[in-house]
Write a structure and sequence with these properties.
By secondary structure, the protein is α/β, with parallel strands linked by helices. The protein has one domain. The protein contains six helices and seven strands, in the order H-E-E-H-E-H-E-H-E-H-E-E-H. The chain has helices at 10-27, 55-70, 82-87, 106-116, 145-152, 191-209; strands at 31-34, 43-48, 76-81, 96-99, 123-126, 157-167, 175-185. It has a seven-stranded mixed β-sheet, sandwiched between helices.
Length: 220
């Protein structure tokens, strides 16, 4: 049986994001969002590379600083590993619900995610790598979860990818660059095409951050 989300009103989450924005201004040098087209009247499956403790907070920041300005969001949901959610029970009030890989409850979690994405204005934060990996990974390996969720959605859902890259350059504080990509909708979903599109975008996003060094090829 899954642990279901009990999200707080979106107004409270917005105030939390305002606090995050204040904190980020103190912790980071710059936070740059390179946007993409946001389709109105859709729900949103927001994906990104998964490399740090900050990833969920980064996603909240992008959702309200960019996506919410294009399309008013209703509620945010986050798929979390059940063991983590049991340890951090308060996360369910910020939209987290559980998934237990390898268990019989996985289908229940996938159905729950798809059900939430049937409603326009809802957004699900999802990390298709399935595990934390270095931010220097050049190739994103997708688990099957995004395919399984997308096949279950009955409404209109836009898939959005963000390649998040951290650099220092001249500052003693890091800067974060969010490189968004419109990945189409569940109606036009093609899993193999998605993987190719995201990885080309991710490689280009990394290349755009390299100032002086030319690389003959990326490490695989």
């Amino acid at each position: 049986m899954i642990i279901k989300a009990k999200p707080l009103p979106v107004t409270i989450i917005k105030w939390t994001v305002l606090f995050l924005a204040w904190f980020f201004r103190r912790r980071f040098n710059k936070m740059i969002i390179n946007g993409a087209e946001i389709k109105p009247g859709h729900s949103y499956l927001f994906m990104s590379n998964h490399f740090s403790f900050w990833d969920g907070f980064f996603a909240l920041y992008v959702c309200f600083k960019f996506i919410n300005k294009q399309q008013k969001l209703k509620t945010i949901y986050i798929m979390s590993v059940k063991k983590q959610l049991e340890k951090n029970w308060w996360l369910k009030y910020f939209g987290s619900f559980s998934v237990a890989p390898g268990s019989r409850s996985v289908d229940e979690s996938l159905d729950y995610a798809a059900d939430k994405l049937d409603e326009p204005g809802n957004i699900l934060l999802y990390y298709p790598q399935g595990n934390l990996e270095s931010s220097h990974i050049r190739h994103i390996e997708f688990k099957d979860g995004v395919y399984e969720i997308t096949q279950r959605i009955k409404g209109d859902c836009q898939l959005i990818w963000s390649s998040n890259i951290i650099e220092y350059f001249e500052s003693i504080k890091p800067s974060v660059y969010f490189n968004l990509l419109d990945c189409g909708t569940n109606k036009t979903f093609d899993f193999d095409a998605l993987k190719i599109k995201v990885n080309k975008h991710h490689e280009q996003a990394i290349q755009n951050q390299i100032r002086f060094t030319e690389e003959s090829g990326f490490y695989r």
